[in-house]
Amino acid sequence: MKVAIIMGSTSDLPKVEPAVDILKSYGVEVNVRCLSAHRAHFGLSQFIEECNCDGTEVIITAAGMAAALPGVVASQTVLPVIGVPLSGSVLDGMDALMSIVQMPSGIPVATVAINGSKNAAYLALQILGTHHSEIKNKLLGERKEMENNAMKANEEVVAKFQSR
User: What pLDDT, on a 0 to 100 scale, did the predictor assign at position 144?
Assistant: First the structure.
């Protein structure tokens, strides 16, 4: 099980690291790169070709401002590509969101919330879970735990206001 994560700049690393941690906690091999679509296009294309051949199953891309990276990656692979728009400009990530979500027909990029690398990791895990039962079962367990915690919080609220 392998996921690649590509960011456009080293300044994006703090926003990407939570995704790396989540994927590794599920036993997924993660290959992380910093390859700008604008400044390192040859190196980016080489890495995408590696991903096409080395068993990578999903590619997560994180970029801000013009956010060309997810689209450039998607144009060079048929692997699922997840785009994470990052804040960092005066438009606070809306520019990146619009850039990533408006891909032309036939070159889709799944898009999560601005700075949503955690959800990008979970979406990648759900994709992996379609072929890896251990991932699927761990996700189901985590969802059950979330439900139990939510129900416990509900019980606490009910108890607090029933006693008034």
Answer: 98
Long-range contacts of 151-155 (CB under 8 A, 24+ apart): none
Q: Is the pLDDT of residue 163 over 90?
A: no
Between CA 62 and CA 48 the distance in angstroms is 15
Task: Name the band, by pLDDT with cuts 50, 70 and 90, for residue 89.
Answer: confident
What sections of the chain are H helices per DSSP?
Answer: 13-25, 41-53, 69-74, 94-101, 117-129, 133-162
Q: Cβ-count burial of 45 within 10 angstroms (0-12 exposed, 13-18 middle, 19+ buried)?
A: middle
The owner of tokens 């891309």 is 61
Burial state string for 60-87 with b = 16 or more CB within 10 A and e = fewer than 16: bbbbbbebbbbbbbbbbbebbbbbbbbb
The CA distance from 86 to 100, in Å, is 10
28 close to 3: Cβ distance less than 8 angstroms: yes
Which range, of 15-19, 48-52, 84-88, 116-120, averages the lowest pLDDT?
84-88
